[in-house]
Design a protein that fits this description.
- 51% of the residues lie in helices and 7% in strands.
- A two-stranded parallel ribbon has the order 1-2.
- The two termini are 18 Å apart.
- The protein folds into two domains: 103 residues, no CATH class; 217 residues, no CATH class.
- With 338 residues, the chain is mainly α.
- The radius of gyration is 21 Å and the shape is globular.
- It has 17 helices and six strands.
- Helix 3 crosses helix 4, helix 9 packs parallel to helix 13 and helix 9 crosses helix 16.
Length: 338
């Protein structure tokens, strides 16, 4: 939603989640210089995904264009991070904009790398109620029938395999924990999704000021796109808060209880109030027993999506393991509130 808002700004061009850092960059040789052909191939992959759709295969029609772009930069070839920068700037300039915007969620695990490689970067970190996140992930596989017809059947299966309440809680803790050390950085702004829904004008004025761009009221005039629980509604426009408590209808009492138990420390830090409910210990134990099997299955379905599985896991574990400690550490800054 925030990406669609930014796409209405005359200076900003939004990208289709290139997943650069985990898919193409991470690993021991992450900054090694690529040959000209390797540089062109990497640029081709991201260009195809941007222009033809996230699941598109590399389109050879763009090969010569990408090769010429690399040669114009450096006839010796480029590093992966230089190819990524070239990709972003080229696509932005082709749309007569000046500021590229990449909303890949996993970028939260690469904040230090982003700021080191691109010192002028501005990072907007959005946090959402973990119960809403769980409901979204639980039903994400249904999006193919709610407006995302471009989604391959294998992706539908992967999304179904990925879902497990404990896995989702660990990922939420890890992602939210990853931002903790950056809360006072002058180039990082953390906001709550719920605050944006409830006061979009005020929130976007703050966000645009932080990004040093002018807020335009028409930025909020966006069509309602499909989510995991509702179909596309192009006739309905604007920002609507009717989905804030949809998780109550889509999660079982066991799932809600698991979220509130496993995410309680950061939920409290981000002012997400737990609700009182009854849950079955037997159901919880069944969920706990199924977790190792579901985790191994998810790893099998996702291993091809990352360049270094070891790096991807370590980045998540390092944040998850210290989440509880850091959320109680005295003197830590508090998240930004609008």
């Amino acid at each position: 939603m925030l990406m669609r808002i930014f796409s209405k700004h005359p200076l900003v061009h939004t990208l289709n989640e290139p997943h650069f850092f985990e898919r193409y960059w991470d690993g021991p040789d992450k900054e090694s210089r690529l040959s000209v052909e390797q540089s062109a191939l990497l640029l081709l992959k991201m260009t195809s995904s941007q222009r033809d759709g996230f699941f598109a295969k590399p389109n050879t029609d763009y090969h010569q264009e990408c090769l010429n772009a690399v040669l114009a930069q450096d006839p010796r070839g480029l590093s992966p991070s230089e190819v990524y920068q070239l990709f972003m700037l080229r696509e932005t300039q082709l749309h007569q904009r000046v500021i590229p915007c990449d909303k890949t969620p996993q970028n939260v695990f690469y904040i230090q790398d982003v700021l080191k490689l691109y010192p002028d970067a501005i990072i907007i970190n959005m946090v959402r109620d973990p119960r809403s996140v769980l409901a979204s992930q639980k039903n994400k596989w249904k999006r193919r029938g709610l407006g995302s017809s471009f989604m391959p059947k294998r992706e539908v299966l992967r999304l179904r395999v990925n879902y497990h309440p404990i896995t989702m809680c660990q990922l939420w803790n890890s992602a939210v924990g990853a931002i903790t050390d950056w809360e006072k950085h002058p180039q990082v702004l953390s906001i709550r999704y719920e605050d944006l829904l409830l006061a979009p004008d005020h929130a976007m004025q703050k966000i645009c000021a932080f990004c040093h761009i002018e807020f335009h009221q028409e930025m909020l005039d966006i069509p309602v796109a499909s989510s995991s629980v509702r179909p596309d509604a192009p006739h309905k426009r604007g920002i609507h808060a009717d989905s804030l408590t949809a998780w109550k209808q889509h999660l079982t009492s066991n799932e809600i209880s698991i979220v509130q138990k496993h995410c309680r420390h950061l939920m409290k830090a981000w002012e997400y109030e737990a609700i009182t409910l009854e849950s079955s210990i037997f159901t919880y134990l069944l969920t706990l027993c199924s977790y190792p099997f579901k985790m191994m299955l998810a790893l099998a379905f996702n291993i091809s999506r990352v360049r270094s599985l070891k790096e991807a896991i370590l980045r998540r574990i390092s944040n998850f393991s210290s989440t509880k400690l850091r959320s109680h550490e005295p003197g830590k800054s508090q998240p930004v509130r609008f």
